[in-house]
Each structure stands twice: as C-alpha cells, then as structure tokens.
Design brief:
single chain; 348 residues; mainly beta; seven-stranded antiparallel β-sheet; 25 strands; binds 2-acetamido-2-deoxy-beta-D-glucopyranose
Length: 348
C-alpha cells in the first residue's frame, strides 16, 4: 500500500505538466485525463477487482451494481410437476371449485399470478395474489385451455398451460317432473318442467283445479285488488273474500271484481253466501286481461240456484281461462234484500 502510494505521488507529479494522472506499472494502467475520461486497465489475462467494504455499494452510473447482479441471479418461479404437465381436471356443471395453483419461488418470496392466454369459464376467476382458481363451473359441456403466469417479486416468471374439461350435468336424471311432465335440462344447472294440464309448478306438483289464489287472504290479494260496482255502504268489495264479512251489491247490475295482479289461468270459482237471506240465486262471470275489455264466460253450471242448504258452491269454468280481472255478476237474490257474495278463485 505504501509502495503504491509512493508510485501515485511519483507519477502524479511526473505527469502534472499535461494535467494527467498516469500510473503505468507492468500489467496495470490507471489514467485520468483532462477531458474527464478515466481508464483502469489490467494486463493480458489479468483480473480487475472492485471490492467495496462490508455493507458498501458499487455505484455505476447511479445504479447499485450489486443490487442489479442480485436481481439477475434470482431464479424464476417453478411450477410443481403435477401442475406443470398442464392438466387441471374434469368438472361437472354447477360444481364449486377452489383449486390452489402450485408454483414456488426458489427464494421463497411472494408470487403473483396472471392469466396471460386463453379464458376461464364464466363465473370462474383467478385470485391473483392468493393463487387460487375459484368459482362455479357453468353447466355447459366445453373444454378450456388457458395459460397462467407465476411472477416473483423480481419480475421473473414461469408460465403453465392448464386444461379444464367441463361436463354438463344431467339435471333431469332423477325424473323430477311429475304427472308425465317433460323435463328440460337448463344450462344453468337447473331443470324446468313443461306440465300437462291441469298441472303446474316447479315439478308439476300443483293441481291448478284445487290451487286457491288466496282471495281470502289480504296478503295475497290486497284490498286495492278488490273492487265493485253499486255496493251497499258498509259491505264493500274488500269484504267480498271467502270467509270475509261479505260484499253486497244493490241489484243485478252490481258486480264484484277480483284483480289477480297478473294474468293467471283460472280453473274454478267458489261462491259463499252471506246468510240465508243475503245471497244470490246464481252468477255469471266475465274476465279481462286489461281491466277494460271483458268477455263473459258462458257457463250454465255457474248459474246455480241457491238451495238454502249449502252455504258455498264451487264451479269449474268450461275451460281454463287466462285472465287478470274476474267479475262476478249476481243473477237474482231474495226479494227485499241484497245480492251478497264472498268468493275465491282457483288456478295457476
Ligand atoms: C474520452 O473518451 C471518448 C469516448 O471514448 C473519446 O471520444 C475521447 O477522445 C476521449 N478523450 C480523450 C482526451 O482521450
Ligand atoms: C422479495 O422477496 C424476498 C423473500 O421474501 C425478500 O427477501 C426480498 O426483499 C423481496 N424483494 C423485493 C424487491 O420486494
Ligand atoms: C335457469 O335457466 C332457466 C331457463 O333459461 C331460467 O328460466 C331460470 O330462471 C334460470 N335460473 C336461475 C337460477 O338462473
Ligand atoms: C254469454 O253470456 C252473456 C251474459 O249472460 C251474454 O250477454 C252473451 O250473449 C253470451 N254469449 C254467448 C256467445 O252466448
């Protein structure tokens, strides 16, 4: 060290005339020129060492060279063998999946994942930081191919190709439709039943002939959906529900109307008298889809005669009829009294 120092002094001094530091010993050249160029040069097949002290840096054009070397040395992530051969699995439509992506960072650093090619099924997503594939597989037969990239915190990455087979689920396998209904296997992992008359419902398990719309219940047919023409003061339309306190009209021009809220297929109607003096001898029905244009349901069996013995009568319509509004038109009542009715409707 002392010797080199002596050389430096010596040569710096000797080269001082042209403003240049020039050290030349066998196999070593150190030059600092006026123009600012610095040259460090070792001889043929001789090494050049830059060794910072412990914790020190080697800065090159503002960059920490040691840090750059460390990054360059970092190895890319590695996909574990069973994931690397690419197969992901066979799934049934509607199945919920939660699959861990099996890549590791050789440095044990954190990994992130990206979908870089192909597509995942609808409703299936990549959890980029958690490293999972999550979701519900659609119930449509299809083959999916996609590439997922595992990236470490030094932006080194490795890709893996996955293949995923989806088999459609046979949702009709258990023959869920009753009454010989036709089962349709939907693409959203459900089934639908096409039901023969007079059946309806999810599994054709509703007999429309005995399925009450619930006129008797205010929570099914609210007061606002009960109306009438020429009512008796306190016997308003909203009382005209089966088991209610009864609607009473004024004469045969009066009518009681039920709004089912939306078009429904009506199969049957029920009439209940108010008392043995306040009743109707019979009634006809008219129906409407819009509340303006009404058609009569010409059902002679609906024109029954009150026998005095029974308080309720049910009548099937001649054929199932699509209607939203149903009107009851009284036909005859006890002389000196009023036509009074309480009603229910059946259908789907
Ligand atoms: C300094 O280096 C540059 C680039 O190599 C060169 O063009 C220039 O001539 C050098 N200056 C001197 C004084 O050697
Ligand atoms: C990357 O992760 C490793 C291991 O956890 C950690 O030592 C290193 O500091 C991280 N580097 C960066 C740039 O976050
Ligand atoms: C499933 O699909 C059927 C037929 O397209 C549809 O009627 C039904 O509302 C759907 N069900 C759900 C839960 O999406
Ligand atoms: C149906 O009955 C209504 C009321 O009783 C009547 O006005 C109409 O003419 C009848 N229609 C038919 C086609 O018989």
């Amino acid at each position: 060290m002392k010797i080199l120092y002596a050389f430096l002094i010596f040569f710096a001094k000797t080269a001082a005339d042209d403003g240049v530091l020039d050290i030349n010993v066998p196999h070593l050249t150190v030059k600092a020129q006026n123009a600012g160029n610095i040259t460090l040069q070792s001889g043929l097949a001789r090494d050049l060492y830059l060794e910072p002290g412990p914790g020190g840096k080697v800065i090159f054009d503002g960059e920490d060279i040691l840090e750059i070397i460390k990054m360059a040395k970092t190895l890319p992530p590695v996909w574990l063998p069973h994931a690397h051969n690419g197969f992901f699995g066979t799934f049934e439509g509607g199945q919920r999946i939660h699959v861990k992506l099996e890549a590791r960072d050789p440095e044990n650093g954190p990994l992130e994942y990206q979908l870089v090619a192909g597509e995942l099924p609808t409703d299936v997503t990549l959890d980029e930081t958690g490293g999972y594939i999550n979701g519900v597989v659609p119930d449509i037969e299809r083959f999916y191919t996609f590439t997922i990239r595992a990236i470490n915190n030094q932006t080194k990455y490795a890709d893996s190709v996955f293949k995923m087979e989806v088999l459609s689920n046979d949702n009709c396998k258990s023959s869920p439709c009753q009454q010989h209904g036709t089962c349709i296997d939907n693409s959203n992992n459900t089934y639908s039943c096409v039901c023969p008359e007079p059946y309806s419902g999810q599994r054709c398990d509703t007999d429309c002939r005995s399925n009450a719309f619930g006129v008797r219940y205010k929570n099914k047919i609210p007061d606002a959906q009960m109306s009438a023409y020429l009512s008796q003061s306190t016997y308003l339309a909203s009382n005209g529900r089966y088991s209610g306190s009864s609607w009473c009209g004024t004469n045969d021009n009066s009518w009681l109307q039920v709004d089912l809220g939306e078009p429904k297929t009506v199969y049957k109607t029920l009439y209940q008298y108010r008392s043995s003096t306040y009743y109707v001898n019979g009634y006809t029905l008219s129906v409407s889809l819009d509340g303006v244009n009404f058609n009569y349901v010409n059902d002679t069996s609906g024109l029954h005669t009150f026998s005095g013995g029974a308080s309720t009568y049910t009548n099937s319509l001649p054929s199932p009829t699509l209607a939203r509004f149903v009107r009851y038109h009284p036909k005859g009542y006890k002389s000196g009294y009023y036509p009074c009715m309480r009603v229910e409707l059946y259908g789907c």
